Amino acid sequence: MSDASHTSSRKNPLAALFLNHPATVDETYFQHMRFAFGFAFWLGTAALAALVHAIVPAMCETTASRILKRLHARIESRH
User: Fold this and answer.
1) What predicted TM-score, i.e. pTM, was given to this entire model?
2) Which residues, 6 or more positions from 73, have their beta carbon under 8 angstroms from its beta carbon?
3) Residue 59 has what DSSP assignment?
4) How far, CA to CA in Å, does 9 sit from each of 2, 37, 52?
5) pLDDT mean values, one per 10 residues, the chain (79 residues)
6) Which of 18, 27, 45, 54 is most enclosed, with most CB atoms within 10 A?
């Protein structure tokens, strides 16, 4: 952590907790929250698909990997 960011987090700890990281991807707190909730939803969906596939291998054969590839592309396009 740089000295400047460490100093600013001491001045405003709420900004350090809620605003600094979203700003690094040029988003507001609520825009970042929406993105993260959507990401969490699709990760959960991928996890459920993988669980179904583990029990019945003929089902959801590529669902989890397709979701993860799509999520990876979304993350890469933000940076």
Assistant:
1) 0.77
2) none
3) S
4) 11, 25, 44
5) 55 89 93 97 98 98 98 89
6) 27
**What end-to-end distance do the CA atoms of the chain give, in Å?**
19
Classify the phi-psi angles of 12: left when phi > 0, otherwise alpha if psi is within -120 to 50, otherwise beta: beta
Tokens of 48: 């459920």
Distance CA 38, CA 54 (A): 24
- Helix (H/G/I), strand (E/B), else coil: 34: helix
Instruction: Count the helices and strands in the chain (H runs, E runs).
Output: 5, 0
Q: How far apart are CA 49 and CA 25, in angstroms?
A: 30
Beta-carbon neighbour count of residue 78 at 10 Å?
Answer: 11
Task: Give the distance from CA 74 to its chain's centroid.
Answer: 9
